[in-house]
Specification:
By secondary structure, this protein is mainly alpha-helical. Helix content is 39%, strand content 8%.
């Protein structure tokens, strides 16, 4: 689900794992500090070769997305009608993103900005941004504008939980260590999306995404989903 928060505690490691590497990754950035790297042996190999990483996660995503689409279908139809009746332009806003193994895909959202807003313009910094439509303010406040991404999950382009889906022109400048975040599918929600780091620059979140991948497990995904549901109404979302 797409409902996001910026004020939660960091998701911990699984039982028996050291906190040292994750803490280093979460405090590092791509600036003047050393580049955080996922270990190429041990934890990473075990995580990405596990049944959950190779088959279980995608299977769970597909089944969950299918039922969530059915559950929210009436709401999505209502949202589409309200978008068309309150502003000019299409119902959906589509963007290219970088997915698993750096393959490009098109992400879909309900349109919440004025039709004349450039596609890759800076995101709104407050609810008073004039680019946000009247109905779009409510959509962004609840993050219901991201519901169409359930279809991306169903198609296998995204996951319910994963790293933030990156824009192609930003990923072009990634260093090799940063490209490691494309080892898994991007998510509708995730550790970075729920982290206070979300208030910082986009590249500040890369270390958080890498920490998520290194600690990939069904239990950690479950905790992220539960915390996502708990912040259904986030007054800090623009």
């Amino acid at each position: 689900m797409p409902f996001l928060s910026r004020n939660i505690d960091r998701i911990g490691n699984d039982t028996g794992e050291s906190h040292t590497h994750q803490d280093d990754s979460l405090t590092a950035s791509s600036g003047s500090q050393a580049s955080p790297k996922i270990r190429t042996t041990g934890t990473l190999v075990e995580r990405l070769s596990s049944f959950y990483a190779t088959r279980g996660k995608h299977l769970f995503d597909a089944i969950a997305a299918f039922f969530l689409i059915i559950l929210f279908a009436p709401l999505m139809v209502l949202i589409a009608i309200l978008i068309k009746s309150t502003s000019r332009g299409p119902v959906f806003f589509s963007h290219k993103r970088v997915g698993l193994n750096k393959e490009l895909f098109v992400i879909h959202k309900f349109r919440s900005l004025d039709i004349n807003t450039p596609s890759y313009s800076e995101k709104p910094g407050s609810t008073n941004d004039k680019r946000i439509t009247s109905f779009g303010k409510w959509l962004r406040k609840t993050s219901l504008d991201e519901l169409p991404q359930l279809f991306n999950v169903l198609k296998g382009e995204m996951s319910l939980v994963g790293p933030r889906p990156e824009m192609p022109f930003l990923a072009e400048d990634y260093e090799s260590w940063e490209n490691q975040r494309h080892l898994v599918r991007p998510g509708m929600t995730g550790l970075w999306q729920l982290s206070p780091r979300r208030q910082g620059s986009i590249r500040d979140g890369i270390a958080v995404d890498l920490a998520y991948i290194e600690n990939l497990s069904f239990w950690n995904d479950f905790k992220i989903l539960i915390r996502t549901f708990k912040v259904f109404w986030d007054n800090n979302t623009y």
